[in-house]
Amino acid sequence: MIKKSLCLCVSVAGLFLAFAAYAGQPVEKNYADHCASCHGAERLGGAGPALLPENLERLRRPEAFKTIAEGRIASQMAGFADKLAKDEIQALVGLIYQPLAKAPVWGADEIITSHLQHVTEALPDKPVFDADPLNLFVVVEVGDHHATILDGDKFEPIHRFQTRFALHGGPKFSPDGRFVYFASRDGWVSKFDIYNLKTVAEVRAGINTRNIAVSGDGKTVLVGNYLPHSLVLLNAEDLTLIKVIPTADRSGKTSRVSAVYQAEPRGSFVAALKDVKEVWEIPYGDKDFPVRRIAVDNYLDDFFFDQTYRHLIGASRDGQKGQVIDLDSGKKVAEIDLPGMPHLGSGITWEYQGRPVMATPNLKEALVSVIDMTTWQTVKQIKTIGPGFFMRSHENTPYAWTDGFSSGNPASRDAMTLIDKRTLEVVKILRPIPGKTAAHVEFTRDGKYALVSVWEMDGALVIYDAATLREVKRLPMKKPSGKYNVYNKITRSAGTSH
Fold it and tell me: Pairing mode, if any, of strands 146-151 and 136-141?
């Protein structure tokens, strides 16, 4: 079992004197006594997750206080309300949200040392279950840090297992769909054998990880890190280290990695840098993994490919224009009108009136932007009920679904907006559970059913007939976030993110 806790870490000596004792022991002493054994003396993590501001950005301070006081369900995190006064707990909260004075090191030696090989023998190459292996869903339940393998025909769970703390960036699949790779926010990469329902290997590739990609030939995994500033190449077979690539421009300025994706038609990985105006292309067929640097006009927080993978569409979270980069020439060929904060990583494509278009939800504005991928002009900005995070469709459905997940308004966070891809009009608002957050749609292999998450601890997967929009089943789950259909992912469906 993977230990989970949210105790707290010892600071670098003398760094947090401002958090000295209240009525009891100094905060450093409390951290050392109660937290360091799980989270490491410098808060870099161990059996428990890293406790750094970058890793805790989704955990609000009141929730951190509650976790320290009461513990965390379905984990090894015990509560400390009976051992520590409220002021002492508050001091610990202050400590873990305090940046380290010096950037920690996590290089080749640390990665190699962290490697875990859970299964050493050869496993059968046939599933141990009867369900269609290409119509399975991997459902991430962030409420208690588990994942569920779901039969996409019967809508019945096959297996549920514990994951690392705070999975991030979406799981990625091997080309045949047998293996799924997960990345956690604090840098753990895990390989799970779906056929045999076993975690086979793990390695910690960073301290704060953005996301991962699996090469089109299934041989290599690329990890993009916020901390340290690096790309890490792993052998997909056993997650052993191949190479660490520091992310820096030619002058030596280092950068966090915004996102990494594989571009199988190009035989390469593509990475965007958050603090340097460059996109990197790395061919995975070359054993040396050389970096091709492509200069861009603005920093890229996320990006999207057209279906040919020739064009990269990127945007900065603080900009008003998207950039279209021709990856063949390495030149910008167009700008796109993208107001607010587009979430290009959740973009989708389809054909509208004989033209290929892309659509992206928006994290700040209540709209979906539809862009002609021939002219790169805006076809329409479709008003939605609230700012959204995820957008999905399928080749066999006329509707695109988007949520109101990024809205601060409960009246829109519970809604799914359905857009007719033929008319670009909103045709339906669905509320799976009124008052409860709805998010992230994924379709079955054939597109006949749509699965929606109710993103609550007492949440559910709600399954709809994609044609009639009638609910057909709901499965209780603990804060289900993304769910990923094997076939749609490995065939790079136009209706799902890649």
Answer: antiparallel
